[in-house]
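Duplicate of #3305? Posting structure anyway:
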């Protein structure tokens, strides 16, 4: 039987232009070495970009009013760049991300890093911090990621750049931290929090979870956002470390709208999207689509002053 195959036309959300001509660079970091849950987050950056090419609508509705809509990608030039880091150990990958993000920021680009595992954020945060020494890091995540290394749950040599160490690195950079959506603690992390008096900066899902309170708690105007997709409920997303009792998409969008309107978000990353092969493929692709939509919407939030009439 002959199968019907119709290729979709490419949209213009991601422009086929040199990175130097872009306003925004999607920096793909395909590395999931030392992930502890299901593997496959290294596949996410390309698949998320694919969804931006072929599925996400270019037009954004700003309100219910007629004429109050625009093609966001006509106002901001979005390009992609993918690092060849698949085989690297986390520490080497982090260095690569830091250097690349640093160069891009230097040239005035708005950098969106796409993981890969959460280790990606260590490099991205370090690069942004150099240009924005007064920034905070806002982490949306089911997990605290305050471990010193992954030695308590992984065999072999403990890795101090594993995904579960991200916020310890950020704290060591002396950057103020706000964590929200948290619902998993470990002894090691609780000990670290108590020792460093960090509890007041932690907003646990279903306990202390009001968007207004979370944004109020951010003391700086400049913010770097690290968004671990497992902040969302495990029923809603394909991720390597799913946790139930998480945020809904609606809650996430409401929070981000508030964050972008009240703070200057200097950069962000989205990590731990896991489209397989250990995960159900179709569900993985769906999450890539929903994350692609989210990224496009976040860029509108970030650059919305360009759209004011
Ligand atoms: Mn997590």
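Output from current build:
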């Amino acid at each position: 039987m002959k199968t019907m195959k119709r290729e979709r036309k490419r949209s213009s959300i991601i422009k086929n232009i040199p990175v130097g001509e872009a306003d925004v660079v999607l920096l793909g970091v395909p590395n999931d070495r030392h992930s502890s849950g299901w593997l496959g987050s290294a596949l996410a950056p390309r698949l998320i970009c694919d969804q931006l090419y072929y599925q996400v609508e270019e037009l954004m509705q700003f309100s219910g009013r007629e004429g109050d809509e625009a093609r966001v990608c006509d106002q901001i030039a979005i390009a992609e760049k993918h690092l060849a880091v698949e085989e690297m150990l986390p520490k080497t990958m982090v260095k690569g991300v830091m250097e690349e993000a640093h160069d891009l920021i230097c040239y005035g680009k708005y950098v969106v890093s796409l993981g890969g595992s959460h280790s990606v954020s260590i490099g991205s945060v370090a690069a942004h911090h150099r240009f924005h020494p007064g920034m905070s890091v806002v982490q949306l995540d089911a997990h605290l990621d305050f471990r010193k290394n992954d030695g308590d749950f992984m065999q072999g040599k403990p890795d101090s750049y594993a995904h579960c160490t991200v916020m310890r690195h950020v704290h060591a950079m002396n950057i103020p931290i706000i964590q929200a959506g948290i619902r998993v603690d470990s002894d090691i992390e609780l000990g670290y929090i108590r020792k460093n008096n960090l509890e007041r900066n932690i907003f646990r899902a279903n306990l202390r979870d009001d968007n207004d309170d979370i944004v109020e708690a951010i003391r700086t105007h400049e913010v770097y956002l690290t968004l671990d997709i497992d902040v969302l409920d495990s029923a809603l997303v394909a991720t390597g470390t799913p946790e139930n009792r998480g945020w809904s998409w609606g809650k996430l969008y409401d929070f981000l709208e508030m964050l972008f309107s009240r703070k200057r978000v200097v950069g962000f990353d989205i990590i731990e999207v896991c489209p397989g092969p250990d995960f159900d493929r179709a569900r993985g692709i769906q999450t890539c689509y929903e994350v692609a939509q989210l990224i496009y919407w976040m860029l509108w939030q970030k650059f919305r002053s360009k759209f004011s009439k």
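Confirmed duplicate; merging threads. The mean pLDDT is 92. Residues 141-143, 228, 230, 241, 272 surround manganese (II) ion (CB under 6 Å).
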